[in-house]
Amino acid sequence: MKYCLLFCLTLFVTPMVFAQETIAYKSVVDSLYREDQFYLGVTYNLLNNKPLGVSQNSFSSGIHFGIIRDMPINARRNKAIGVGLGVSLNAYNHNLLISKTNNSTTFSVLDNNDTDYSKNKFYTYVIELPIEFRWRTSTPTEYDFWRIYTGFKLGYQFANDTKYKGSPEDFRLNNVDAFNELQYGLTLSAGYITWNFHLYYGLNTLFDNAKINNENLNVSEIKIGIMFYIL
């Protein structure tokens, strides 16, 4: 009888203890929450300020990923400064031929009517430092929210390469010194929950002291796409 009473008491008391712990757990609100996030972006890449005759063909894409540290700056914590670190991989399809002549990098425009080629593109690989001013409608208990993040992105291009397939012969160049290693521009991300529109507008040229037909090649980057933020 004694063991039966003890068993019954355990059956009733144990759920009550766990229930109290669950209620206590749910009642705890993280008033110092942050929106530290991993980000993953996919963009369509455009060449801005193209010289006469230069055009893009096919699809030029970019993949961007990294992490951002969130630092709230007001009591409500819906405004913050975000500082991150990431990597960007970019590809551009175009008719701007980048080649080597007497150990010197030269630029010329491929005539689609006179030149038979199947591929002409370059790739850039960039380490990025995004800095953002972040506004959102999130709260410590609300995870579905609107956001607008504006900022500045500094990039270091640690590698690049070009590919050409066509007449008179195929060739590939690695780490062309005519590319500008330092890249920077303005950014905007806006959206709801995970899905966000993203824009990057480059403020400096993609190439360093490059010329085409004796004119400066002042091409810069514009990237338009989607950014995913993941906690």
From TrEMBL:
Signal peptide feature range: 1-19
Residue ranges occupied by any Outer membrane protein beta-barrel domain in the UniProt entry: 18-208
Organism ancestry: Bacteria, Pseudomonadati, Bacteroidota, Flavobacteriia, Flavobacteriales
Protein name (record): PorT family protein
Sorted UniProt keywords: Signal
A matching Pfam family: OMP_b-brl_2
